[in-house]
Amino acid sequence: MTAGAGRAVEHRLSAFGTTVFAEMSELAARTGAVNLGQGFPDTDGPAEILEAAVRALRDGRGNQYPPGAGVPELREAVAGHQRHRYGLAYDPDTEVLVTAGATEAIAATLLALVRPGDEVIALEPYYDSYAACIEMAGGTRVPVTLRPHEGAFRLDLDELRDAVTARTRLLLINTPHNPTGTVLTREELAAIAELAVERDLLVVTDEVYEHLVFDGVHVPAATLPGMRERTVSIGSAGKTFSFTGWKVGWVTARPELLAAVRTAKQYLTYVASGPFQYAVAEALRLPDTYFSSLRDDLRARRDVLAHGLEAAGFEVFRPAGTYFMTADIRPLGAVDGFAFCRELPGRAGVVAIPNGAFYDEPGRGAPFVRFAFCKRTEVLEEAVRRLRSSGFPA
Questions:
Q1: Are 309 and 387 spatial neighbours (Cβ–Cβ below 8 Å)?
Q2: Mean per-residue pLDDT pooled into runs of 10, the chain (394 residues)
Q3: How far apart are CA 5 and CA 237, in angstroms?
Q4: Helix (H, G, I), strand (E, B), or coil: what is residue 194?
Q5: What is the sign, positive or negative, of the torsion defined by CA atoms of 260, 262, 263, 268?
Q6: SS3 388
Q7: 3 state DSSP class of 127
Q8: How many CA atoms lie within 13 A of 30 on its CB side?
Q9: Facing residues of 252 across strands?
Q10: Among the listed residues 123, 145, 135, the one whose alpha carbon sits nearest the alpha carbon of residue 364
Q11: Quick one: which of 212, 137, 117, 121 has its CA closest to 170?
């Protein structure tokens, strides 16, 4: 054996390990629990979009490498969506890039734009890939924590301003926000825009839940004064059309920023999801009634789960957007979300995610757990029944 071959391998992502989603999904499978942990629907999206994917496969569209920037039909559809929904004009040839889901879009953007030693401000708690991608880019993560206030998690704009230093390169903003369900208001985003312009910062906005807003409205940062030229906006088909396995996302930005992101993206997947790109192009052109029906249906499911969790003894933060709900476990006599979520499948037959996994210091999120309500109503009702009969509080 080579000397030292048995030594533990150290690498720049050693601190990250296996994601909490993998652990909790394995627990769900082992115990037969209702999985309200990982955020994927338990039904497929529109039948006509499924048929569009099948048609593309049969017609040989996308079965070989698609263009590096994405198929023209999808890039045009993304540009049309941004124009129709928000009045944002993007050139599909130079300002739209198709990616392997929003996760690759985030990775490519941060790898392209963050230099070693740059500081990246992210709203905490945050989607776990943010931390890993900032680390891979050699940046320094600076969390600004959303804190509970009057039934929701709110951003402290003074804290955000104070977090900016001479080393700050960009602001990474997620609205609607996973996992808290917060939707930043126009006033909050205007303050962020003013700060970005004043300090000459880039802004990366993760907007994958843009169509899942139940209270308030989604305001893209790029629509605000001075933001179009400094904002990289990220979208995705998975959450909006209930095809999370297709992994089709996109980036919109001015040509110079997009070219940098595309350079990084070409060394990640290069291309992906060829036939599905054609299907998503059709999906983005569905009538407005599809998007409003999706929102109304998920709002009803949100309320089913919220009422059920409250009846089971949780303190619930009813989300304004996304399909995730944060609950406080302290009324149940528990204080450690990780221990609670590891016990919950065996005790109640339900899986949740500990919010502490989304914090730099897990203790800041210790009493909070996240449930996904993108499941059939009868599944949510069964989960609620199990929770209410589980014997909580301890």
A1: yes
A2: 54 72 85 91 96 98 97 98 98 98 98 97 94 96 96 97 98 97 98 98 98 97 98 98 97 98 97 97 98 98 97 97 98 96 94 95 95 97 93 64
A3: 44
A4: helix
A5: positive
A6: helix
A7: coil
A8: 11
A9: 96, 233
A10: 145
A11: 121
